């Protein structure tokens, strides 16, 4: 992702394969490709295929069709979960001699397109040290420094998501303090509680008690956090037992489609019986809180340990 802009300035490739767990970076990559392509008349020249609308022959036909009123057209394959062998063969053949005016972008959250030899865009989260170096560098351009502890706190608050850190850096660069401290982070940086819940679920599914407790310690112990945890595990349960598409479930649950995509991946780390038991435990705890039989903070720790050993 860090080099995508410079690569686009040199040449727009026939195909970009975007992979990684930082969902927010997928849309950012697409925006950069659209801008570099100077895409016009999107209604005609921007075609999206997801699991619900996927048709292998139609994808190839669309790629081979010339744009209308624009130098480029973009065809987006969005998290296709089961590309068949016939389509894989046709796609490989197409990319040997692609239409120059078509740019194929593949969002591949589930790593189903590893068979392609194409221009790759990484949407993976960076390691702590790389993120720390970026934070120091970007703050330096604004004449600011940051303490080591504050830098770590910033990264933890954003769950290592570069896109979230970038948003917070804009606030930190415009604040009055020359040296960014833990106090500055606590007063200015929004704790990304919803993203922390995704991370917490991942840690719980891997039975990583240390990481789970560390993440819970970062989260405010209030009813909003409890509701996020409750709704998140309910979503995992519904996704696990439903046959609906990502879009259908997103509409049904009233969430963005990426939230269903991530939930589907996380739900595979639990059995359906485990998710059913967790769902019932959450409903019991919700009842205890509403009837004053359990404090929210105690409830959150109770749930974490209950899920770890369910």
Write the layout of secondary structure elements.
Layout: H1 4-10, E1 15-19, H2 23-37, H3 42-45, E2 46-49, H4 56-64, E3 73-78, H5 85-96, E4 102-107, E5 119-122, H6 128-140, E6 145-146, H7 148-157, H8 162-174, E7 179-180, H9 182-188, H10 193-205, H11 209-218, H12 223-241, H13 246-253, H14 257-267, H15 272-290, H16 296-308
Parallel strand pairs: 1-4, 1-5, 2-3, 3-4, 6-7
What does this structure look like?
Helix 4 links the parallel strand 2 and strand 3. Helix content is 59%, strand content 9%. The protein contains 16 helices and seven strands. It is α/β, with parallel strands linked by helices.
Shape: globular
Estimated helix fraction: 55-70%
Q: Give the N-to-C terminal Cα separation.
A: 38 Å
**Content-based structural category:** alpha/beta
Tally of extended strands? 7
Main β-sheet description = 5 strands, parallel
Q: Which series of helices and strands comes N to C?
A: HEHHEHEHEEHEHHEHHHHHHHH
Q: Please, how many helices?
A: 16
Low-confidence stretches: none
Strand order of the largest sheet: 2-3-4-1-5
Quick tags:
310 residues, alpha/beta, five-stranded parallel beta sheet, two-stranded parallel ribbon, 16 helices, 7 strands, 59% helix, 9% strand, globular
Quick overview of this protein structure:
With 310 residues, the protein is an alpha/beta fold.
């Amino acid at each position: 992702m860090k080099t995508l802009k410079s690569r686009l300035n040199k040449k727009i490739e026939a195909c970009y394969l975007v992979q990684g767990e930082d969902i927010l970076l997928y849309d950012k990559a697409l925006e950069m490709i659209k801008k570099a392509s100077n895409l016009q008349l999107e209604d005609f020249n921007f075609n999206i295929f997801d699991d619900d609308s996927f048709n292998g022959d139609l994808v190839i036909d669309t790629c081979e069709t010339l744009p209308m009123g624009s130098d480029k057209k973009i065809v987006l394959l969005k998290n296709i979960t089961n590309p068949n062998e016939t389509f894989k063969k046709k796609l490989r053949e197409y990319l040997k001699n692609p239409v120059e005016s078509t740019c194929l972008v593949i969002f591949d959250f589930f790593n189903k397109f590893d068979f392609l030899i194409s221009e790759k865009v990484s949407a993976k989260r960076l390691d702590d040290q790389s993120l720390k170096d970026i934070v120091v560098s970007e703050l330096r351009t604004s004449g600011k420094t940051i303490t080591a502890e504050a830098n770590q706190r910033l990264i933890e608050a954003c769950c290592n998501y570069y896109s979230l850190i970038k948003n917070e850096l804009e606030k930190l660069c415009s604040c009055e303090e020359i040296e960014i401290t833990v106090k500055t982070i606590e007063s200015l940086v929004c704790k990304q509680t919803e993203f922390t819940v995704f991370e917490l679920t991942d840690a719980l599914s891997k039975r990583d008690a240390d990481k789970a407790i560390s993440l819970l310690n970062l989260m405010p112990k209030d009813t909003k956090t409890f509701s996020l945890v409750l709704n998140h595990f309910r979503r995992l349960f519904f996704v696990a037992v439903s046959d609906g598409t990502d879009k259908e479930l997103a509409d049904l649950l009233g969430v963005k489609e990426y939230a269903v995509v991530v939930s589907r991946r996380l739900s595979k780390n639990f059995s359906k019986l485990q998710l059913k038991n967790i769902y019932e435990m959450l409903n019991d705890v919700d009842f205890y809180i509403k009837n004053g039989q359990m404090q929210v903070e105690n409830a959150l720790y109770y749930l974490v340990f209950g899920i770890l050993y369910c």
